[in-house]
Amino acid sequence: MAGRFGAVLTAMATPFAGDGSLDLDGAQALADHLFEHGTESIVVAGSTGESPTLDHREKLDLFRAVVEVAKGKGQVIAGTGTYNTAETIELSAEAAECGVDGLLVVTPYYNRPPQRGLVAHFAKVAESTELPVIPYNIPSRTATRIEHDTMLTLAAIPNIVGVKDSTGDLDGVSRLIREAPADFDVYSGDDWAAFAIACLGGAGLVSVASHLVGDRLAQMLQLVSDGDVPAARKLHEELSPVFAMLFITSNPIPLKASLSLLGLPAGDPRLPLLPATPDEEDRIRRAMEDAGLL
Fold first, then answer.
1. Mean pLDDT, residues 80-95
2. What angle do CA 230, 236, 242 make, to 5 degrees?
3. How does DSSP classify residue 134?
4. pLDDT of 41 above 70
5. What is this structure's pTM?
6. Whole-angstrom Cα distance, residue 218 to residue 215?
7. Number of H helices, E strands in the chain
């Protein structure tokens, strides 16, 4: 079942120091922890990694730092997508020089390109690199969805190798898995949907919850692959409160609070995000206690 980047990919949080600067030592420590607990590939500088508030240099520093930790442990996928095709191509080329294994390229946001514009954007990025490219389809953040026929067009481009799907449309995911090339990896972009998408034949999960329950997510996906769907469903149900807790407010605010409770590198989010409120912290702590994490 697992795709070319494995079954459990983690969209890694970006640790910051007390003064708000990038904590590269913390990023390496967190990456090492993830690889030791079920993660097979790490996505660096995605939305969970607060990419909108990372500057160009910081992203490259992060890519290099995590690549260094990943040697012999797993793969690194660089989040290089922006709403500017030329900038995306430039950052992707520099990420390749840092030694990353693949690129996650989000749908251009804010400028809301038409579907033909999406094809042109992703095709230009793909032809500019030899690395495998994974479009990230998340219309709730970008205001634009990569529609089914557009995705099939992209899937025909040799180094566009899969999609991170955060549409919440399980019927659409089922159709895509059925109609896309057999080697096109459809990854769930949402923890809550991972079990269902795995049952539909998906390649795995790009996860937030894997920071906390990576081993259990890996077990759940392996159970689906082995055909033990009832046992996998039981794990999904046990983990669902954790999935819900991580989105009681904007991601990664609850995640960073959770990591701090576990003594893992996190720091506060950067503005315009804020730390969890006392009420949110209480809800996060109770959910983690109920899940046996504290």
1. 98
2. 160
3. E
4. yes
5. 0.96
6. 5
7. 12, 8
C-alpha 246, offset from chain centre: 14
Note whether 207 and 11 are within 8 A (CB).
yes
Q: Structure tokens of 235?
A: 């794990």
Give the tens place of pLDDT for each residue, 114-133: 999 999 999 999 999 999 99
Alpha carbon distance 86, 103 (integer Å): 15
Cis omega (within 30 of 0) for bond into 252:
yes
**What Å distances lie between residue 264 and 39, 111, 257, CA to CA?**
16, 37, 10
pLDDT of residue 1 exceeding 80: no
Q: Do residues 99 and 64 touch, judged by C-beta distance below 8 A?
A: yes
Q: How many residues does the chain have?
A: 294
pLDDT in tens, 155-164: 999 999 999 9
CB-based contact 105:136 (threshold 8 Å): yes
Enumerate the active-site residues: 136, 164
Contacts of 289 (CB under 8 A, 6+ apart): none
Residue 29 CB-density burial (10 A; 0-12 exposed, 13-18 middle, 19+ buried): middle
Per cent of the chain over pLDDT 90 is 99
Longest dimension (CA), the chain: 49
